[in-house]
Amino acid sequence: MKLTSEQVKQTINQLGAQVLPDEHPAMPQLNSMFGEHTFFVDEMGLKVVEPTAPPGMERQSGEVVSLADWGDSELTRLMAHEPEPTGVIVVFEHVRH
Length: 97
Description:
Distance between the termini: 23 Å
Number of helices: 2
Largest sheet: 5 strands, antiparallel
Radius of gyration: 13 Å
Structural class: alpha+beta
Order of helices and strands: HEHEEEE
Strand content: 35-45%
Oligomer: single chain
């Protein structure tokens, strides 16, 4: 799931992870492996958010899914695995302009 900039901010606030910017050198490889997503990294590895509520619902949410774990103690090498739901739900508050 590709997140809006507001959803990215809300995810960072709730998850405590860092977003990988679209211009990050690893993005082409990540997109080819996992599809178009907004990718996050934390101390455990690589994550994405998958929608949990149908579009149009008042409050949107998404579940954090782990795609890869760090393969070294320096957090420089990711080891991909089957997508694993983490049970962590991110709630997106609707922003009114």
